[in-house]
Automatic annotation (TrEMBL), chain B:
Top-level lineage group: Bacteria
Domain Molybdopterin cofactor biosynthesis C (MoaC): 14-149
NCBIfam families listed in its UniProt record: moaC, PRK09364.1
Keyword terms: Lyase, Molybdenum cofactor biosynthesis
One GO MF term: cyclic pyranopterin monophosphate synthase activity
Entries under InterPro entries matching the protein: Beta-grasp_dom_sf, MoaC, MoaC_bact/euk, MoaC_sf, MoCo_biosynth_MoaA/MoaC, Mopterin_CF_biosynth-C_dom, Mopterin_synth/thiamin_S_b, ThiS/MoaD-like
Region of interest (Disordered), residue spans: 1-30
Annotated EC: 4.6.1.17
Protein's name in the database: Cyclic pyranopterin monophosphate synthase
Pathway: Cofactor biosynthesis; molybdopterin biosynthesis
Biased composition (Basic and acidic residues): 8-27
GO terms (BP aspect): Mo-molybdopterin cofactor biosynthetic process
Gene: moaC
Ligand binding (substrate): L74, C75, H76, M112, E113
Length: 160, 269
């Protein structure tokens, strides 16, 4: 089975359509592709978020994302994956993160995409600073993100 | 840190204070009620239809402090030795600021009593003035100080507020490769990232290996604290660590030319 993986950390915006097309180009074995795009919201810890700056830890970031995709491939039969995360300054409505996952069947693609986002949010070294009318502040971690990620850790009957 | 009003099964329970030693307990709290300048002027001149507003609110606050245990489910009934309530009319901000202090010699704190007194004083002020101003707003009710008891003294503002840390916009986060260590004098390279970098005011530094009591992450933290006590923050709350870009703990060994990064919990995605 042909496998394609691409992981990028970049400042410029991305086009989810172009990225998905690139992942699928020349492939007829893929039966399902799931794409998730995260966007900058204009409200978060404070209302009126005017902009957001994303910092990361170069080197470790790429390795962490690569490791997360490797774990996803161990859990589901994937035929391709593409993870793009932006850094630097963004404004509400801008895309921040893209995860595209391809598989022969939809269930694996849906679940692997969900898994990659959950792990990315709790394991990849990115930090958000929000700029609002009331000042700038670093975003705090969320308990709900850890709960989401821990869904994949219990080796119960219902998990893959 | 745990919630004393929850037992091991997470159920609410009243803390048994029978064996606690008695000590002098004091607490003061404050809050305000915002109103129209005209309402504040009427209040100052005694021109409000219900009469002496501040005297009534003071009595209400003292009564409320004594009856706090009837309102707050797990509070003990306390024999307060002193309750004082003060008002300050702030013309500039067009508000009445309320301060309440409570004291007793006993086994429990009196901060709930002080907070209740402030809240009820504000509610009474609202009731006394509402005929002329329905837009009044009660706010900023908080504990100012607390003395005595096991948890020690507290003074608002002397510890970081729980609200998000507000900083300057700063530069977009970039971590430089940094300088390599000289082979003749073994050292490790330390980086502080994101909020931690701004809180500690340092992004990169070099620490000689021979300054570490133990050549692991824990030893490095101790050496940093010795260098500057602000680095005690590395052991507070959730601070993560990576050695050569792999997640590490205090016991993780470190060696010459390692890159050790400290950073807050991640918030990407």
């Amino acid at each position: 089975m042909q496998r394609l993986r691409e992981i990028r950390v970049q400042e410029p915006p991305f086009d989810a359509g172009i990225e998905q097309a690139a992942l699928l180009a020349g492939r007829s074995d893929i039966g399902a592709v799931v794409s998730f795009t995260g966007l900058v919201r204009d409200f978060n810890e404070q209302p009126d978020v005017t902009a957001l700056t994303l910092e990361h830890y170069p080197g470790m970031t790429e390795a962490a994302l690569d490791d997360i995709v490797t774990q996803a491939e161990a859990r589901w039969p994937l035929q391709g994956a593409r993870v793009i995360h932006r850094v630097g300054r963004m404004t509400p409505g801008d895309p921040i993160v893209l995860v595209v996952v391809a598989s022969a069947h939809r269930r694996a693609a849906f679940e692997a995409c969900d898994f990659i986002m959950d792990y990315l949010k709790t394991r990849a070294p990115f930090w958000k600073k929000e700029h609002s009318a009331n000042g700038d502040y670093w975003v705090a971690e969320r308990e709900s993100d850890h709960k989401d990620a821990s869904r994949w850790e219990s080796d119960d009957d219902d998990s893959p | 840190m745990s919630l004393t009003h929850l037992n091991q099964r997470g159920e609410a329970h009243m803390v048994d204070v029978a064996d606690k030693p008695e000590s002098r307990r004091e607490a003061s709290a404050s809050g305000y009620i915002q109103m129209k300048p005209e309402t504040l002027a009427l209040l100052r001149e005694g021109g409000l239809p219900k009469g002496d507003v501040l005297a009534t609110a003071r009595i209400a606050a003292i009564q409320a402090a004594k009856r706090t245990h009837e309102l707050i489910p797990l509070c003990h009934a306390l024999a307060l030795s002193k309750v004082s309530v003060d008002f300050r009319l702030d013309e500039a901000a067009s508000r009445v600021e309320v301060t309440a202090s409570c004291r007793l010699n006993g086994r429990t704190g009196v901060e709930m009593e002080a907070l209740t007194a402030v809240s009820v004083a504000c509610l009474t002020l609202y009731d006394m003035c509402k005929a002329v101003d329905k837009d009044m707003e009660i706010g900023g009710v908080h504990l100012d100080t607390k003395r005595g008891g096991k948890s020690g003294d507290y003074s608002r503002g002397s510890i970081p507020a729980p609200s998000p840390i507000v900083t300057g916009e700063g530069v977009a986060g970039q971590v430089s490769i940094g300088t390599r260590c000289d082979i003749a004098s073994p050292c490790v390279r330390v980086k502080c990232l994101a909020e931690l970098r701004e809180r500690l005011g340092v992004s990169e530094l070099v620490v000689p290996l021979d300054s570490l009591a133990s050549t692991d992450v824990g030893g490095l933290k101790a050496a940093l604290v010795e260098r500057d006590e602000r680095f005690a923050g590395l052991s507070e709350g959730r601070v993560l660590c990576a050695v050569n870009q792999v997640m590490a703990v205090d016991a993780t060994p470190i060696t010459h030319d390692d890159e050790i990064a400290f950073f807050p919990p991640v918030t990407g995605g």
